[in-house]
Amino acid sequence: MAKIQMKTPLVEMDGDEMTRVIWQYIKDILILPFVDLKTEYYDLGLVKRNETDDQITIDAANATKRLGVAVKCATITPNAERVKEYNLKQMWKSPNGTIRAILDGTVFRTPIVVKGVTPYVPGWKAPITIARHAYGDVYKGVEVKVPDGGKAELVVTDKDGGETRIPIHEFKTAGIVQGIHNIDKSIESFARACFNYALDLKQDLWFATKDTISKVYDHRFKDIFAEIYENEYKDRFEKAGISYFYTLIDDAVARVIRSNGGFIWACKNYDGDVMSDMIATAFGSLAMMTSVLVSPDGIYEYEAAHGTVQRHYYAHLRGEETSTNPVATIFAWTGALRKRGELDGLTDLMDFADRLEKACIKTIEDGVMTKETYLLSDLPNKRQVNTMEFLKEIAARI
Ligand code: NAP
Ligand code: MG
Q1: Which ligand ends up closest to the CA of 305?
Q2: Does domain 118-140+181-283 have CATH number 3.20.20.370?
């Protein structure tokens, strides 16, 4: 069989630990036999990041801007232990944070649904995608303890020196105070990324804040979404047969639980942090959660939602067999290949991506699975295999 041809290369960002090992397996067993793979390779493994003073991460992000589609392996975000373990020059920043800042993107996370792993919420028949705003609010907050008798005020000085001063609280006893902010431009990018992604997936978009309580701050989010929807997206949504729905965050939570799934849920930064873990766990496993960063100008970076699976890597280094689930990482590849096919008009590349995804799902639904899915599955004929056996079973089903 002739291999499927590509036009434009993907940006390939290699990573760390167990996912780095699996990355190579996936290419060797599931992609290279079928596709004449073209990539521009960037090694984002911690060793290389340290060697290049993290320039490699910036180069990879810029290449993504140039080429439009990237696929990324999980990477270590260094902490004090990692600085020792890898003898690092400094505690390099999170590569995902660096890439997100350069691409100005929104992260969409979607669970991969298979028969035999039942969501904890029985009504959920289709996946729910969480879109998390990745800038500001409490993540860029400043806070301080206030002694008793202290007085807190909110002061904004404009560029001409004018001043707005609002009392926060006069503390009769000790307490705490916090200042948070966001930026219209960032909220606008977030809104556009969500509307574009909804059109891409042909799914409804939900958005929720607490604008009844936060009448200026959260209300600004609500207004920006409404304005952009009315002016730029309403017609396209109507044509695509999808809708934009705004409600209060507590109402949204109740509706999400009662829903059948199959929509995109846009969340402010904190809501997205909390709700994405809830959605991932309620659907089954972190190892079955995909993640894509979409920039407002239509650049895509695909990855798995989980990390480098460090514990399994150490077992692997000790020569022990591991049963690490490669599915989310495979879906990062298929997402990138499909998007590349779509942009370059290569239907056979898109078909291959569909086929590979179906093969993954079929493998699990046939009862062949890695350990963490095995423990969750209610299939009567289930059988646990190691990572390599699992990949070969998928290959046999392509
Ligand atoms: P993790 O790699 O996501 O793993 C946490 C635990 O979840 C694992 O120990 C494993 O549980 C289970 N798990 C996750 N993915 C799995 C898979 N594919 N198959 C089977 N089980 C899976 O998170 P972590 O251990 O907290 O972090 C490890 C490193 O990853 C850190 O250095 C962190 O900085 C990095 N990280 C990177 C990204 C990214 O690049 N996007 C995201 C998160 C974390 P058991 O051990 O119980 O089997
Ligand atoms: Mg979190």
Answers
A1: 1
A2: no
Q: Which backbone phi and psi does 248 adopt, to 5 degrees? A: -75, 150
Q: Model-level pTM? A: 0.89
Quote the tokens at residue 366.
């046939």
Residue 152 Cα distances to 156, 161, 164, 176, 217, angstroms: 13, 21, 14, 9, 19
Quick check: do 1-109+291-398 and 118-140+181-283 share a fold? Answer: yes
* Helical H segments across 259-326, by residue range: 269-283, 310-317
For the record, the structure tokens of 254 come out as 């109740």
Which residue is closest in CA terms to ligand 1's atom 5?
309
Q: Is the pLDDT of residue 134 over 90?
A: no
Residue nearest to ligand 1 atom 36, measured at CA: 307
Q: CA–CA separation, 120 vs 395, rounded Å?
A: 30
Write down the domain spans for the chain.
1-109+291-398, 118-140+181-283, 142-179
Q: What is the mean pLDDT of residues 220-227?
A: 98
Closest-lying ligand 1 atom to the alpha carbon of residue 22: 18
Please report, for residues 109, 158, 282, 331, the alpha-carbon distance to residue 127 in angstroms, rounded to integers and kept in the order given: 10, 45, 11, 14
Integer Cα distance of 210 and 137 in angstroms? 13
SS3 35: strand
CA distance 271 to 315: 35
The pLDDT score that the predictor gives to residue 273 is 85
Q: Locate the DSSP E strands across 193-304.
A: 205-209, 244-248, 263-267, 289-294, 300-304
- What CATH number has the domain spanning 1-109+291-398? 3.40.718.10
